[in-house]
Amino acid sequence: MTLPRLRPDIGSLPAYKAGQRPAERDDLVSYKISSNENPYPPLPSVLAAINRAAQDTHRYPDPFSRRLVSAIAARFDVPEESIALGTGSVAVCGQIIAAAAGPGDEVLYAWRSFEAYPIWTQISGATSVQVPLLPDERHDLEAMLAAITDRTRVIFVCNPNNPTGQVVTTTELIGFLDRVPPDVIVVLDEAYREFMVGEDMPDGMQLFRGYPNLVVLRTFSKAYGLAALRIGFAVAHETVAEALRKTATPFGVSTIAEEAAIASLEAEAELLERVRALVDERQRVWAALRDQGWPVHRTEANFVWLRLNQESLAFTAACEMAGITVRPFAGEGVRITIAETEANDRVIAVAAGFLQQHG
């Protein structure tokens, strides 16, 4: 039987591996801590906005999401013309690559990093250039600079890096941006920016005006807790932002997502109290793992990373036995989302037992 003809490279396209849901258990409550989700439900004011917006689901959304664009511009003190929206920051990543790179071009990023980068790059027909992380799990900026060629069109800097949680500091980032050719787009992926509390932490919103080639990515999925509504945005030079709007899916951002995001910005002070609580929990989990003897680096995201190498799947299985699902990267490590206190306590207990058994 003759089958439809597809692009020959689609067969080798890596599939996005979402965090798995835990199996239903009768003996204990299961927790999904594999997708870096916010464990808190939406605030009452945000739920009310969602319910109101749901009354209009028979209508198309505003294709320009003008009310949200205005709210983002006011909140971050950026021009409305510099804002482009998408169905989550992962989709905006694709919009950037679609606007800037194609066959014969290169997209450069650290590895391991966010797994959407190689997927979108291959879809566009461009070539991935992956630069290994440093031994401390941080971006090797010098090696990334050395990897730039006349074919480089886009560079991703995931900050904090997913899945390792490590940060490029303000000083390091400025030094890097000063040396990148001005015709190469640098994407500062700040999906976890709200969880950063260390010293010398960069803020892309303060930097983008000084670098016309800088694109700043943010999302409402993590700190704002709107993961299921799929809404993210980029802030960039007006010419670049216009290109990102052209490569976006028409009507991609729903009315419900727009209204929920606006309500979240209005309730930001209350939401950020939850973020501070998660940061405190992150510190507790990190300190417990460190005290157990794990070589765990300090993280600035809403997750911790264990470099387990060949033990990654065994540790994942031990967590599953305890009713929790983590995100394994086979042969590399395990990413553990900071979640409810009970889930975090179980991770700490599993880690202690695993270390005793496996040394």
Strand order across the largest sheet: 2-8-7-6-5-3-4
Structural class: alpha/beta
What percent strand? Answer: 15-25%
N-to-C span: 55 Å
What is the averaged pLDDT score?
96
Q: Radius of gyration, rounded?
A: 21 Å
Low-confidence stretches: none
Number of strands: 12
Topology order in helix (H) and strand (E) letters: EHHEHEHEHEHEHEEHHHEHEEEH
Helix content: 25-40%
Overall 3D shape: globular
Main β-sheet description: 7 strands, mixed
The total of helices stands at 12
Explain this structure.
The chain has 359 residues and is an alpha/beta fold. The chain is built from twelve helices and twelve strands. α6 links the parallel β5 and β6. α1 packs antiparallel against α9 and α3 crosses α8. It is globular.
Brief overview, please?
With 359 residues, this protein is an alpha/beta fold. The protein has helices at 44-54, 66-76, 89-100, 116-124, 141-146, 170-177, 204-207, 238-246, 255-266, 268-292, 312-321, 341-358; strands spanning 31-32, 83-86, 106-111, 127-132, 152-158, 185-189, 214-219, 232-235, 303-306, 324-325, 327-329, 333-337.
Please give a handful of descriptors for the protein shown.
alpha/beta, 7-stranded mixed beta sheet, 3-stranded antiparallel beta sheet, 12 helices, 12 strands, 15% strand
Topology:
Blueprint: E1 31-32, H1 44-54, H2 66-76, E2 83-86, H3 89-100, E3 106-111, H4 116-124, E4 127-132, H5 141-146, E5 152-158, H6 170-177, E6 185-189, H7 204-207, E7 214-219, E8 232-235, H8 238-246, H9 255-266, H10 268-292, E9 303-306, H11 312-321, E10 324-325, E11 327-329, E12 333-337, H12 341-358
Parallel strand pairs: 1-10, 3-4, 3-5, 5-6, 6-7
Antiparallel strand pairs: 2-8, 7-8, 9-12, 11-12
Helix pairs in contact: 1-9, 2-9, 3-4, 3-8, 10-12
